[in-house]
Amino acid sequence: MNQIPCVPSMSVRHAEQPSSPRRAGAEPRTGQRSARPPRTPPARGAALAAPLLALLLTACAPANRADASAPPAAASAGAEPAAAADASSGRLQWRGGPTAILERDGLRLLTDPVLGPRGPAVFVLPKHPSTGVENAPVARYTDPPAEPLGRLDVILLSHNHADHFDAVARETLPKDVTFVLPPDAADAARAAGFTRLTPLDWDGETVIPTRAGRLRILAVPANHSHDAALDATLGKGNGYVLRWEGATPYSIYWTGDSVFTEPMRAVAARFAPIDLWLPHLGAVGVDGARGLRTMDAEEAVAAAALLRPRHVIPIHHTTFGHYREPVTAFVQRAATKRLPAHIHVPTDGAWMPLPR
After folding, report:
1. Predicted local distance difference test score (pLDDT) of residue 59
2. E strand or H helix that includes residue 341
3. What share of the chain is helix, strand, coil (3-state, %, to 5)?
4. H or E element: which one contains 101?
5. What is the SS3 assignment for 234?
6. φ, ψ for residue 254 (rounded to 5)?
7. What are phi and psi of 234, to 5 degrees?
């Protein structure tokens, strides 16, 4: 793979113009964890002392502080040119943070709905992952896209934290949509009025008919931390492997909030190569006392080497104040390691074909 240049994201050919949506049909963890010891978070001063060139290349990152009073500069990244994708095979719209709409074969799926507007305190975390401050408000730097969500067939929830299922989503989303979620999140969704719940524990599966076949949704482990005690405290979350079956099969692995662990290696051993990987980045907690709570660039590239995705669309970056690493860090690390996947940095609110 050629070296990936760092260029403004708008110059990367990856998004199509929006169009009208197509009508469509604390509990302890189980499972293995990585044997590596918890990461030692870098000192905050070391991050500030990074070389000037690195700072220029990653200017979209918010400063390493409890929160930020102003939005970061727009993310910029380079990507290898990918083969032209057939828009009829599906499309994706990133709506900031962990939230995206996936359309394929007559189904519209919404991931981790965080729908509240821009502001300095859009939700509160029980303990800030960087500073440890309790009941910490977190800023949102950009408004969600103005385009309505439209019809939804499935809501996919990775876990029941405020930065993945916010108050606006609980109040405004239609209550009769199929809601696939971890068992630990079922009571909260039911209390919010949702009526069609499909709780899936790890390795649980549900099958949904599509226009030309069916979609298999498999829940896989999403370990929120390398620290076993913290992982248990944060609760049991899911990643999902989505497999469209029919004349044109397609697979997506959405990690949810997971660090790179032995269970993720097991997903790779079982399903690689993946057509599309949707990793949660942002290096949440990298500068905190207890380490990563989502992958940083180093972990994401190591995971991708095993998953062998044909395409990567990184999400869970840029939007919120507790994210600590810009998406450019992943793009640059992937170039250095000559990752053979095509990387597509999404533009907030723009539709893009599901690449093949």
Report:
1. 37
2. none
3. 20, 25, 55
4. strand 100-104
5. helix
6. -105, 120
7. -70, -20
| Cis peptide bond prior to 249, omega within 30° of 0 | no
Structure confidence at residue 89 (pLDDT): 83
CA distance 144 to 277: 22
Q: Kindly provide the residue ranges of all beta strands, DSSP E only, lying in 213-348, ordered along the sequence.
A: 214-222, 237-245, 250-254, 276-278, 311-312, 342-343
Token duo for residue 307: 């998953």
CB atoms within 10 A of CB 22: 14
Please give the C-alpha separations between residue 147 and each of 105, 176, 183, 337, 350, in angstroms, as whole numbers.
Answer: 21, 21, 31, 37, 10
163 and 36 in contact (C-beta within 8 Å)? no
Q: Model-level pTM?
A: 0.79
Alpha carbon distance 124, 143 (integer Å): 17
Question: What integer pLDDT is reported at residue 49 of this predicted model?
Answer: 35
Residue among 187, 210, 186, 214 at smallest CA distance from 198: 186
121-147 residue pLDDT tens: 999 999 999 999 999 999 999 999 999
Render pLDDT for 178-188 as a digit per residue (tens, 0 to 9): 999 999 999 99
Please name which of 59, 88, 143, 160 lies closest in space to residue 320, comparing C-alpha atoms: 143
Going by C-beta distance under 8 Å and a sequence separation of 6 or more, which residues neighbour residue 150? 21, 101, 108
Tokens of 198: 């499909």
Residues 157 and 69: their CA atoms lie apart, in Å, by: 29
Residue 133 is predicted with a pLDDT of: 96
Low-confidence ranges of the chain (pLDDT < 50): 1-88
3-state secondary structure of 263: helix
- Can you tell me the distance from the alpha carbon of 65 to that of 287, in angstroms, rounded to the nearest whole number? 9
